[in-house]
Amino acid sequence: MTPISSNAANKALKKALKRAGIDRDLTFHGLRHTHGSLLLLYDTNLFYVSKRLGHATMETTANIYSQLTKELNEKGNHVSEEVMGNMYHAQNIAQK
């Protein structure tokens, strides 16, 4: 199998999208980035995402998706606070 350039791949994708009636300006790189983002949004392990995307290290993945990982950390902090608050509330009810 002969490798093709990213430009040729994107032209083929554009033609396929047009034939399918999809009026979007997509690239394979954009689809790859979306794939990585969705994996992280659905709490997939960073090590797995890094290997799946072919990154040499998890640090590479974390750097590329740093804004997303920051948002996920904030989401995790919020969930942790909510869980702890619910546990505290339940403990107070049980003691009454």
Descriptive terms for the model:
single chain, 96 residues, mainly alpha, 5 helices, elongated, DNA recombination
State the gist of this model.
The protein has helices at residues 6-19, 28-41, 46-52, 58-64, 66-95. The protein is an all-alpha fold and 96 residues long.
Taking pLDDT < 50 over at least 5 consecutive residues as the criterion, the unreliable ranges are none
Q: Mean pLDDT, nearest integer?
A: 86
* Computed CA radius of gyration, to the nearest angstrom: 21 Å
Order of helices and strands: HHHHH
Query: How many H/I helices?
Result: 5
Please state the structural category: mainly alpha
Task: Estimate the strand proportion.
Answer: under 5%
What is the number of strand segments? Answer: 0
* Helicity, as a percent range: over 70%
Domain Tyr recombinase: 1-78
GO biological process, one term: DNA recombination
Pfam families: Phage_integrase
InterPro entries: DNA_brk_join_enz (IPR011010), Integrase-like_cat_sf (IPR013762), Integrase_catalytic (IPR002104)
Q: Can you give a write-up of this model?
A:
With 96 residues, the chain is mainly α. It has one domain (6-94). It is built from 5 helices and no strands. It has helices spanning 6-19, 28-41, 46-52, 58-64, 66-95. Helix 3 (46-52) packs across helix 4. It starts with 5 loop residues before the first helix and ends with a helix. 5% of the residues are buried. The model has no long low-confidence stretch (mean pLDDT 86).
